[in-house]
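Intended use. Records such as the Metallophosphoesterase family protein entry shown here are meant for training and evaluating sequence-to-structure methods. They are not intended to support clinical decisions.
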Amino acid sequence: MKNVFVVGDIHGCFDELNELLQHWDKEQDQLVFLGDYIDRGKDSRKVLEFIQNLVQTDGAIALKGNHERMFIDWLNEWQTERFIRNGGKETIYSLLGTDTEIDERRAIAEAYPQTIHFLKNLPLYYEWGDYLFVHAGINPALPDWKQNTEHDLLWIRDAFHYQTNPTTKVIIFGHTPVQMLHPEPQSQPWISSCTTKIGMDGGLVFGGKLLGLRVSSTGTYEWFEQQKHE
């Protein structure tokens, strides 16, 4: 592939994802998702099914996000309140479509075994030439970025954002809404002053945008965005 087309955090917003991907050229672009497909938005099930299909039929790369980790933890009855507190109820309703009193974990496990297997086995990063794609970032204190734990790659924030990038790669990440990274809140991609870190979480579910970026093999960038539907 000549290019990579990378998509920021989706959080159950299927219509916005579908519209953003009108800019994706499947013949020229390797499609990469940065994680956080579920929670907060109303269409987590549709997003998951759509992305699974893109991985299987079009060779898309779907990385694991911390929200996928929280969902798996909830299924395993660990850190259950953290999942619910961060938009998990919307995901449960999207998957089950019912408010009746049932064993939600068991019902989801029985109805979606392939989806659960898919989420458990999502990769934590993707390398492409001089670029590294990861959900949250890396721990810059480690001598080799490949020594990062899953927790680092899915959860890190300030220690990554505001310290020198120790790698030789441009790191493209999501996780932290760009509104928190810019000096003045805005929904545009965030590029560090050293230009080697690019934030792609447009804060879609908080009234922001779904962000897309085409990276060419020659190092040029082309940005795309999709507004949140009312």
